[in-house]
Every structure is written in C-alpha cells, then in structure tokens.
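Cast an eye over this sequence plus tokens and walk me through the fold:

***
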Amino acid sequence: MKILNLSLTTWIFIGLFLGVLTGLVFGEAVTPFADPMAQLFLRLLRMTIIPLIITSILSGVLSIGSGKGLGRLGLKTFVYYTVSSLLAIFTGQALVNLFKPGVGATISLDKNVEQVAAAGQSISDLLLRIVPTNIFNSLSSGDVLSIIFFCILFGYFVLRLKEPYQSSLATFIEGAFRVMMKMVHFVIWFAPIGIFGINAKIVGTTGLEAFKSLGFYFLIVLVGLFWHALVSLPLLLRFVARINPLKHYKGMIPAILTAFSTSSSMAALPLTIESVTRRSRVSSKIASFTLPIGATVNMDGTALYECVATIFIAQLYGIELTVLQQAIVVLTALLASIGAAAVPMAGLVMLTIILNAVGLPLEGVGLILAVDRVLDMFRTATNVLSDSCGAVIIARSEGETLDQMGEPADEEE
C-alpha cells in the first residue's frame, strides 16, 4: 500500500494533525489513551539523551584532533551562539517597545507564581553549575552543562595521551557513538505515535483557551520568533554560509516538529543530529561537537521570550524601564538563556532572574503562565532551528562544501 511508503516527515505531520484534532473532539477524555503513547516516546528519547551527549561530545572533540583545532571550533561556536542570541533579543526588544502590548492591559495574577519564583537561581549559580563536584551526580540528575564541560575536558586530555592508549580510547568512543546513532534511528520511528499522543493530551486538557486573555503579548512573541526563524537565520545562512536556507530547513522538519511537540531541545537532539548530518550533510565532527552544546546553551527563542516578557510585565505594572535597565534586560536574558535547562518551561524559571535584576515584582511571572506552555513549543522549535543553522555555518567556515544538502544520505553500516 502506498500509504505505508510515506516518509517519516509525512507521518509526523499526520500524527501532529490527528493529535490536535483528537484533542479538540474528545477533550480531557483522550488523556488516558494519549498519555501512555506520549510517555513511551518521551522515555525512549530520554533513554538516549545522556549517552548520546557523552559519546557525541567526546567523538567530536577527538575527531578535531588537536587542542588548537578544539579551541578554534569552540571559539566559532561561542561567537555564533552569542550573535544569534543577541539578534533574537534585539528583535524581541524592538517589537515589545514599539507595540507596547502591556500598556492598558488587565490580567489576573496566577496563584502559582510563588512556586515558579522559588525555583529561580542567581547568575553566579548558573556559572558554577558548569563545573561538577561529582560527575556521577551530574549524570544521574541530568545536569547537562556540567556533563558537557567534563566531556570536553576528558576528550582534550585523551588527545594528549600517547599511543596505544589514545587510539584505543578513540576507537571505543567512536564505536559507542555509532551504536547510539543506530539507537536514535530506531527511536525516531516512534515519533509520529509520540507526537500524536503529546498533542492530543495538550489540546484535550487546555483546549484553545490559552490564546484568549493574553492575545497581544502572545502575538508579539510569535512575530518575534517567526521573524528570527524566517528572516534573521536564513540571512545568516545565505550571506555567511552561502547556502540555500530552504534546502536546510526542509531537512530539519522532523527535528523542528519534535521540538515543537516536546518543548525540549534535548528531546529533539537525537533527531537534530540525524537531520543535520544525513540531510544537511554536515560532518559528524562538527555536528557532534556543536549540537549538544547548542541544545544546552543556545536558546535564541528563550532569550527573545524572556526579553519580551520582562518588558511586557513592566508595562503591565506601569513601570518605565530606563535605558540602563533595558541594557540589563538584554545582558541578563543572554546569560539566563545560556543557563536555562533544555527542558519544558525552563525559560519561565529563568525569567525570575531577569525580573529580579531590574527590580520588577516576581509576581509578574504569574501573569503570563496562561500562555507559556504554548509559547514554549514555538520558542523551543526556534532554539533547535538556530542550533542547526549554527552547525551549518560553522561547517562552511571549516571548509565543508555541503554540496548534496537536502538529499538524504544512506545510513552508515
């Protein structure tokens, strides 16, 4: 039957559409049926995330081959992530100051604000998280920043070993990475079922009510995210990487839809790596180094959202932020987005840091809880898209041609 020969991307679209439709038709009654499918897919993804991060980072570091190469690639990665995040923040800042969605609005305070605010951290806490006190605790708790730091350090010192130890470890690590990628190829075939369950549950539980009370704010954030995803990032691809953005975007559809449905950059990481290497033809060396780091520290959509939300809350309270305060918002949004965990609604927790930095009431977080879950889906998709664009731009800067971009590569044996 022809329907069985549809591509994975088509099946994911079908799952997304049927999930939304089922949620709208059956409401909360769909939850007992949809939730197990959603949880199965999410558990399969989470099962692969930490091993994939460890093996891909180590494989990427070792494939660079020297401390000098590692430093060069690391610098390019840092520069791209900083520039793309600042572009997103300035886009959000311009929109919220131009259209002022919070001026004259009346929105009731959510009682859950105290629970969200209590989870806030200081910037120094976020920076200290990078260095683990116990790597095994970091592995069990899923503290990705410290895991990445440890893996980069471990890989660097493997490169300084003499033979035969270096080649033996490198062979084992590369083999483990290839095993993880085969597991990922297996897991992603459950994506249509998982995405159906996730969206059926969300729409069945919340309906479309979340769009009503905060419509203007919601629209401003969406316009900013779409501008960044459809204008800023394509311009970087066209003029910096000199490649056709449409070819790259087409190959990223499975990863973007997974990010949208799960609201987690980490959940989408296996598909992001698979799409970037097999469809955009970025080398495993570049992808395995940049993408796991990007899933943790490159949060363009989150940074844009945090900037818009902070200024929106100030407008709701009738507070005019000074130029200095807005500069603090930009800087803190950049740092907080770097520290945000790549899990659902982490940006909401990081927002409390920015509110505190500019002296705004933390209760303001409760004002936007109604639409945060929906916005989280869009900003996560933007985060993942930016990660993938970064991998392409860095690959081009390293001399990769990407001639067959858009044409799926055969799976390696």
Observations:
- The chain has one domain: 2-397.
- The chain is about 75% helix and 0% strand.
